[in-house]
Amino acid sequence: MEAQNSPNFISMSEKVGLFNPKDRICLIPQMNRRGCHLLAGTFRGFGIKALVMDTYEGIDLGKEFTSGKECFPCQVTMGDILHYMKKEQERLGDAFNAENYVYFLPESEGPCRFGMYNKYQRIVLDSFPELENLRICSLTSKDGYSLAGLMDPERVSNFRKSAYLTLSLNGPWKP
Question: pLDDT-derived band of residue 112, with 50, 70 and 90 as boundaries?
Answer without folding.
Answer: low
